[in-house]
Amino acid sequence: MFDMATGQPEGQHVIQGAQTLNDLEVARDGTIYVTDTGTNKVHKITPQGQVSTFAEGERVNRPNGVAIDGEGTIVVVLIGTNDVLTYTPDGTLAKTEKSTDAGNDGLVILADGTKLISSVQRGTVARIRPNQAAEAIADCIPTAASMAYDSKRNQLVIPQNAQNAVTIVQLR
Hints:
This protein has strands at 21-26, 32-36, 41-45, 51-56, 63-68, 74-78, 83-87, 93-98, 104-109, 115-119, 124-128, 135-138, 148-150, 155-160, 165-170. By secondary structure, it is mainly beta. The strands form 4 sheets. The protein has a 4-stranded antiparallel sheet with strand order 1-2-3-4, with no helix packed on it. It has a 4-stranded antiparallel sheet with strand order 5-6-7-8, with no helix packed on it. β3 (41-45) and β4 (51-56) form a beta hairpin.
């Protein structure tokens, strides 16, 4: 939390027991979802500052990337498996899809619901179009980490952690 006028920090939310906070996403209502790869949990912080566990358990195997789609559902990708988990805002697991590879890190959801997933372990990017199986769209990107979508140029911008490089993937 920061003061918009001064840029000064205004506070923090401590997540007790957290080990490796990894990625976060903010919902339209201000709720923050944070993955904790070290404890196999996804945490939720309400706009009022209340911290709770949103998702946990065997199914949530080393959560990494998190994003919110246009319908307000929360999508989580995992390092531990190739599962792509979609949750309703109340924490109900609504759908499980499979990416092409495990070791997933980055997640971008396009306006049409297409999910783009980078695998930091395999160096790939997968695409899951709505109601379709995953397909590989890029490979040979060592340590492909969290990524951003450049909508003006219809491309992904992907950092390569260990190489100190950035890869651009043009989408088609």
